[in-house]
Specification:
Blueprint: H1 7-18, H2 23-39
């Protein structure tokens, strides 16, 4: 599974609009998930 460049930034921007205070918790989880997906 491949992600287009800038996908995480776009996702963060969308989430910040909906959940402005959640990014501090969510970002490390996204990074861990992406690392896990890249390994597979």
């Amino acid at each position: 599974m491949r992600f287009k460049a800038g996908y995480l930034n776009d996702l963060e921007r969308m989430l910040e609009k909906v959940l402005p205070h959640a990014m501090l918790k969510a970002k490390p989880n996204f990074e861990l998930r992406i690392r896990t997906l890249k390994r597979n």
